[in-house]
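DM from R.C. (forwarded with permission)

"hey, sorry to bug you on a friday — could you get me a structure for this? deadline for the figure draft is monday and I only need the backbone to look sensible"
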Amino acid sequence: MRDFWGRSIQRIERWILAIAPSRSRSNVEVGIMQSDNEPQREVSSPLWASYVAGLFDGDGTVVISYNSEKRRYQQLVVSVSNTFVPVLGKLKSIYGGSIDSLGQPRRNLRAKFCYQWKLTGRQKQLCFLQDILPYVIIKRQRVELGLAFLQLVRSQGASKERLDPLEVTQRHVVAEALRVLNKRGI
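My reply, with the result:
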C-alpha cells in the first residue's frame, strides 16, 4: 500500500521509528477505537516532546466537557487530530488514550480520513501536558489552563462529597477561560 506521494507504508513506519524510537514495531500499528488503560510510559526525549508540542500547536486541543445531565461534572479532554495514523499511534503507545475515526469530510470526497487521539484520565493528562509545556508556543495558555484545572480536580476521582463553593467557582473560571480561548477566531 502506498500513500499519496507514492511512499510505502513500511517506509513511513521506519521513518516514524527513526524519529521516535519505541520498544517494538507493534507500537506503531494501531487498532482504531481501542482504549489503552495502562500505557507503558517511556521517558520522552526533548526532541520528541518538541515534535509533539508542534503537532499539538497545529492540530491539538484542550477542552472541558460537561455531563449532559444538568452539567453535574466537568471533564478535561486533551486531543490531537491528524490524517497520519502512525504518529497518533506513537502518542497512544507513550501516553495511552484512544484513537477514533472522525470520518471523511463530506465537502471533498477526495480528502483523507481524519483520526483523533483522545486522552482522558488525570495522571495521563498531567504527564502529557507537562511534557509539552516547555515547547508549546501557540496554545501555551490552553495547556497552562488545562494544568490548572487538573490541579483543582481531586486526585481520588469522583466523590459523593459536595464541592466547596470556592472550588466550584475556580473550576468555572478556568472552564470559561478555556471556552473563550477555544472560540473561533481567537
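R.C.: lifesaver. The CA atoms of residues 95 and 124 lie 6 Å apart.
me: no worries. Residues 21-40 have pLDDT under 50 and may be disordered.
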